[in-house]
Write a structure and sequence with these properties.
Length: 176
């Protein structure tokens, strides 16, 4: 089909072209195969499971839609945001977030005692969620801590305030 291949000889110039071609292919392959790393300003997608230090799960998107955010844009708690920097695409990591880098310590001023009469004929019980409008016209949610004949104690702290949070995170996508 090709005849006698012994009659074809590569000239020195051909060796140079072949070496350059292989070098370009090797560089291109390394560049294409390099695993992206998360940096500030990247738009990333993650799967996560959030637990308390005792292992109780409080949130997870595993098996659902990934969480999308821009790293460093202060869209999430700082401990999570900082914890993903340096991770590689499809890698997993456990990020431990102390309350100071999460939802903050419990603020005693966010625990309020209000007269039970404020609720009129409504039944109020410990564990219920109460919603009120804040001065900035945003909804605030509080948890009823206790009720007695005269007062209701409501905690308007974030339910995750004062807690160390543990996140198992997997990077699903990185957009530079």
């Amino acid at each position: 089909m090709f005849g006698d291949l012994t009659e074809y000889k590569l000239q020195p110039i051909h060796y140079g072209i072949i070496i350059v071609a292989f070098a370009i292919l090797a560089y291109g392959a390394n560049t294409l195969l390099a695993t992206p790393t998360v940096a500030i300003g990247d738009n990333i997608s993650v799967y996560y499971t959030g637990t308390f230090t005792n292992g109780t799960v409080f949130d997870s998107n595993v098996g659902g839609t990934p969480l999308n955010f821009t790293v460093g844009a202060k869209q999430l708690i700082s401990g999570f945001d900082e914890g993903v920097v340096g991770m590689k695409l499809h890698s997993s990591k456990t990020i431990v977030v102390p309350d100071t880098l999460g939802y903050g310590p419990i603020d005693p001023n966010a625990i309020e005692i209000v007269p039970v009469s404020v609720f009129g004929n409504q039944t109020v019980q410990a564990g219920m969620t109460i919603v009120r409008m804040a001065q900035n016209n945003q909804e605030e949610r509080g948890t009823v801590l206790s009720v007695n004949a005269t007062n209701v104690t409501i905690d308007f702290n974030n339910p995750l305030a004062g807690k160390t949070l543990v996140f198992n995170v997997t990077i699903a996508a990185i957009q530079k």
